[in-house]
Design a protein that fits this description.
This protein is an alpha+beta fold. Helix content is 14%, strand content 24%. A 4-stranded antiparallel beta sheet has the order 1-2-3-4, with no helix packed on it. It is elongated. The termini are far apart. The mean pLDDT is 79.
Length: 120
């Protein structure tokens, strides 16, 4: 049984902390200074951001129904929403609420007039 017992030597423990090389923990900051950009480069970066597409979703309202009712839908079925006709519509950009609006009709298409913008 004496062969199975080993003395524990804490100085020779193989631990990831003991294997860290080339790190000076006495330095406060091991990072380089941030790069500075010229005004033309900043303008180019803004132009890139302005060209990113955004999905806009307009929410008329919500309704909660049972699957049985959903399966009974047919042409002409009515689904009532929780919003009133005069309540503002919610306008989302990439899933985030950004504004409120109201429905407008122009010729044969629907549109939304912005009535307020969320302040965040």
């Amino acid at each position: 049984m004496n062969k199975l017992k080993k003395k524990h030597n804490p100085e020779k423990v193989d631990h990831p902390i003991n294997n860290v090389n080339n790190v000076d923990i006495t330095k406060k900051n091991n990072f380089e200074k941030p790069m500075s950009f010229s005004s033309n480069e900043k303008k180019d970066k803004k132009e890139i951001i302005f060209d990113i597409p955004v999905d806009i979703t307009i929410e008329l309202g919500k309704s909660r129904i049972k699957i049985k009712e959903l399966l009974n839908f047919s042409k002409g079925s009515m689904l009532f929403l929780n919003q009133k006709k005069e309540d503002p519509l919610k306008i989302f950009a990439n899933g985030l609420l950004v504004a409120f609006g109201e429905i407008v009709v122009s010729q044969n298409t629907y549109g939304v007039r912005i009535i307020s913008i969320k302040n965040s």
